[in-house]
Design brief:
2 domains, 4-stranded antiparallel sheet, about 35% helix, FtsK/SpoIIIE/SftA, 10-stranded mixed sheet, 16 strands, elongated, ATP binding, membrane, alpha/beta, ATP-binding, FtsK_dom
Length: about 450
Amino acid sequence: MLTTTPYISPDTLLWLLVPATALLLGRMVFVSVRWLRADTETRISLGQARRIRRTWKRLAPMADLAAKDATPIGLEHLNTDGKPIKPKIRIPRITTKADEFGVTVTATTLPRVGLEAWQDAADDLRNGWGMTRVKITQPKPGQITARGFRREPLDTLMPSPLFRADGTVAVQPGSLSTTDDVLFGWDEDGQRIRLNLAKSAHGLIAGVTRSGKSITVNTLLAYASLMRDVQLVVIDPNLAAAAPWWRTAHKVSASVHPDEASDVLAWVREEMDRREKLFWSARTDRITAFSKELPLLLVVIDEVANYTRHSDRKARERFEAQLLAIASQGAKFDIRLWLITQKPSADVLSTAMRTNLSARICHRVDTVEDFLHLYPDGRELEVSAADREMPQGVSIASIGDMRTPVRMRSVYLPTEACWQISDAMCRSGLQLRDLPTGTDFVKAA
């Protein structure tokens, strides 16, 4: 019998090649753009991800992550040479995603190759992929996630995205808003820990001297200062947090006596009353869109113990009354209160006060009792900040809708960078006041 080869015209061949060529070019462009936009560490991870995909068919059987697919009995008669049919080796399909810490491998499960098999193979994967650690999870049935770490997030000093490596400001003043998240840092699995000021309430940051607390506060203040629809109020008796933002904050106080701080809080109370009247007239109970005319108000008080434990009893009580009123009622009027202290004990912040501070970041503290004041169920947690070996810049954080507190490495934003951001704001016409004369701001920084 004669057979003929089907004829394919040049036009038909061209129509077949055009989509394939376009798909190939699109893939090349995507890979090139991803490489060019990636930082140095992510580029290393991209190369490692390619090696993982290239060697996967060899590594999977060695790690007992492949499954044998025996020929069904009903098809055995198709083998005419009398030899048994070899079972097929099925390899889990994988996809990879690289980041600055390593590679995340997502794989499909196979019969008898599920979560337990992957967990047993973790050491083989770690060695085969060249990772320091591999974490295996199963986010949903039929899928396995193997998170490989080239470097540990908690041990890595990560610069803030607000500031470039060459010492220039990466974000233009006024380019951010309350729709943007504040990037506080990364947890031990390399997940970003973010806070949205518009969707959150009040917060508390605690930690002893040299624990990295100031770097975390710098991040909060810098993001708020760069947001066009946020007004920043800073009260700081030591000037450590307030100094860079002295010229640009809406209100700022560095007095060590509670009276001046109480006056600032009284102004905040007046703003709450004004907004309550606006709610009545607008027949609403919230602000849906912030603006320069009606901004979100962020009130940050550093070293709050200076005021709540002040020797002037009447001044102290007045301050505490104003503070509690803002903490208990301010959130519904879009006032966000953040308190910073070294020791969050009951004589510094009452239980009623701490109850209103839902977002909590605890750097290293001296005692377990100090940690329990932030996290009452702390004895049941796997993490603790009452650890003398806790590295500087690492904290226990519970922010937003996080179910359990996690270890967090704060992004690195030194005070010098905050001054650079403040200078950029002043050059953009956002300066509200001059630096006070006779104050050693270099020492304060």
